[in-house]
Amino acid sequence: xxxxxxxxxxxxxxxxxxxxxxxxxxxxxxxxxxxxxxxxxxxxxxxxxxxxxxxxxxxxxxxxxxxxxxxxxxxxxxxxxxxxxxxxxxxxxxxxxxxxxxxxxxxxxxxxxxxxxxxxxxxxxxxxxxxxxxxxxxxxxxxxxxxxxxxxxxxxxxxxxxxxxxxxxxxxxxxxxxxxxxxxxxxxxxxxxxxxxxxxxxxxxxxxxxxxxxxxxxxxxxxxxxxxxxxxxxxxxxxxxxxxxxxxxxxxxxxxxxxxxxxxxxxxxxxxxxxxxxxxxxxxxxxxxxxxxxxxxxxxxxxxxxxxxxxxxxxxxxxxxxxxxxxxxxxxxxxxxxxxxxxxxxxxxxxxxxxxxxxxxxxxxxxxxxxxxxxxxxxxxxxxxxxxxxxxxxxxxxxxxxxxxxxxxxxxxxxxxxxxxxxxxxxxxxxxxxxxxxxxxxxxxxxxxxxxxxxxxxxxxxxxxxxxxxxxxxxxxxxxxxxxxxxxxxxxxxxxxxxxxxxxxxxxxxxxxxxxxxxxxxxxxxxxxxxxxxxxxxxxxxxxxxxxxxxxxxxxxxxxxxxxxxxxxxxxxxxxxxxxxxxxxxxxxxxxxxxxxxxxx
Length: 601
Fold this sequence. Notes:
This protein has about 600 residues and is of the alpha+beta class. The chain is about 60% helix and about 5% strand. The protein is globular and about 80 Å long.
């Protein structure tokens, strides 16, 4: 059988398994006969896409209905939501009876074939055998981290983030394998330039390319000047093209959290460095000149780099309690942490420090540019994966692919048969994958993949009806902001955009309001028309498992404003109850309520 046919069959079979795993989230996405988004950010993506495709608001990059009264820039770049909206609009035009959310819910599932195809191509480029490639793809398909990217209903943009990570590896290997071919430089430059249009942080994909060229330059093996000029020019030109539709760019913003002049500046700096490597030979004066140029380049973005580093390390105060920014190794020390980590990453994650070390040595000693690039990318990706849970698209595939490449090369040196090595590897993987398979198959997930949303979702129709009659601002926990925007036409005081100093300020303002009495709220926030009350920790873990939390403890663990609106014997004046959900046990209290503030009419 031809290798192309073999690898195509592997890709198709592994992709089918990945689709099966992605559809395991159907219980979270298909509720009461309709599809809903899965995951908090997916609700906002869905609202923005639906508004752009079939709504009256059209496509917006600044949203005046979040973080009111100021409004906020949407921190996600324009390309992903806009292009998906265009695809949805075309689907509705072709088939008017189509359910828009059903279409959106299956976009990440269908995209599995793209990402698995890129992963297959990388396996072939690094000369990984067919059997090890099949194991890598099978492992990636079964990994719950892949399910959280491609699961049905997960409309968040992280699966496209993975696409550009894999495309950067693929095009980079192509370039460093044959850097004299101009077309290879152009393809890599386009991939790197387009990436920030889909996620602001993807400008960091330029780092492994620069690191590889620098390493080869120091060895006097850098690509030729003509090749590097084409790469630099394409990178800068494609970055400029994707920045032009960005309104933050057009109003001269210079921020890494919006697609702005910051990203063009980074591309320009990268391009200048690439041209320098092709223009100047390695000498002590030129190394000093390179350091001087780098220092000058860093000055305009030094403050941005500090805040970006704080974001990557999770040191921003506003991010302190968000699961997405926690390191998987940091989670191990928490109660149930080992089970959580091994359930998502599998036990193979414990090989991560070893893989980083081995590929760092490999990058240092290898003479082959493509091998150096792949090794640098494995180290880069796995370290990012270990830094934060949300950065796993950079490293989960690299951990698997890197491990199998080392095993396959060791097998070849030892003269062990591919069949015996594959059987032993599969046995190890079967043991390593016990936690994820146990927790990922046939599990009934709560609607929206969030128990708090599942518990309160029946309140949204009542709030939506009120907002349709008289729109206004809703005060709620920031975690509920995306849900409110998806289900209603009301604006929200805060939501889960928690990246900029302005967002931190709004969270602080919201927390201040939540510490008030209902009477104080009326005076302090006249623009608030609705209050969405939800109580945390109404059940707690005790010696005999989960048990009801006593009412005094519930009141103490929640915002004073919400506790007052939940446990006060009478509703405060000017607060009209719209709807509520009650606890069905001996405590008999409403743990979730929606109020209209009639004084603000």
